[in-house]
Amino acid sequence: MARLGSWIESHPEGIYVRPADAWIDPSQPKPRAWVTHGHGDHARGGHGAVLATPETLAIMEVRYGPQSGQPIAYDESLRVGDVDVRFVPAGHVLGSSQIVMEHKGERIVVSGDYKRRADPTCLPFVPVPCDIFITEATFGLPVFRHPDAGSEIDRLLQRLHADPSRCVLVGAYALGKAQRIICELREQGHEAPIYFHGAMERLNLLYESFGIRLGELRHTGNATKQEMAGHIVICPPGALNDRWSRRLPDPVTAMASGWMRIRQRARQRNVELPLVISDHADWDELTMTIRELAPTEVWITHGREEALKHWCMTHQIKACELNLVGYEDEDD
Ligand SMILES: [Zn+2]
Ligand SMILES: [Zn+2]
């Protein structure tokens, strides 16, 4: 069943903006798609026309080939059909946006994925007060409180320096998390070369082409075991336990994800050094954001909605969950 707002509808395959005849982050090919960011559960190939930031369009081209895309800069305002639309930073990954829409005096904001913490690879989240706020809730439980990323990076560096004969292998999503970890390491003065799995090469180059400085990076395929000892190696989470990692010098297995708060998740991946570094808002960031935007209504996506819905009700805000299909943890 579609959830109906005054002019915006939620369907399993996405959010439909009726007066603009446009879909937000649709999971099926649509004639007109507005895409918040490049992660696979939000950006898909095959749309007739895509409106997104230049960074998101570039990411989509790396993943899906040429797009019939229309770039929209942050804070540029467009009129589509009967809707004024603009994209503002969401602080999630390079190019990530909230979509702000106005129609007949009502303002609706779709958050996409977001966080409120500083991230050296993207612009910070811009709060836009609104009537209806459609928020993600990946970590929508009070148990999720992410520590400061700097303290997690310290633990990573301590472990690296503790045994120079080994490497530390960090599992991190290829889009966003990997580049953020690299930048956070650089900010803490770690200037040594960082080795990367080949699957990350194109996105690393893309980030650099948008001015994100990643320092000296080396492809693991061109390195010997000995060369990589005492260094950090970054790979996609799926490569942590596969044959590929046998070429590394006795790796300490680490993973950077909000889910590393849950011990069982770390054990499932044989992670020795869990790093709780997330690109999503934790419980405090979600509730702080809703307080700040003061919407009359909140719609919640991405799984763990119940607790946040309850929190909204106790704060006199109408809330409901949206059952969108295909939103996954690609990017936690
Ligand atoms: Zn995402
Ligand atoms: Zn998502």
What does this molecule look like?
With 332 residues, the chain is α/β, with parallel strands linked by helices. The protein is built from eight helices and 20 strands. The chain has a seven-stranded mixed β-sheet with strand order 1-2-3-4-5-6-7. The site of one zinc ion has 7 residues, from loops.
Any key phrases for this structure?
332 residues; alpha/beta; seven-stranded mixed beta sheet; 8 helices; 24% strand; globular; binds zinc ion
In short:
The protein is an alpha/beta fold and 332 residues long. It has helices at residues 54-64, 149-162, 177-187, 201-209, 225-228, 263-268, 283-293, 306-314; strands at residues 3-4, 8-11, 14-17, 22-24, 32-34, 49-52, 69-71, 78-80, 83-89, 97-103, 106-110, 132-136, 168-171, 194-196, 217-219, 232-235, 252-256, 273-275, 297-301, 318-321. 23% of the residues lie in helices and 24% in strands.
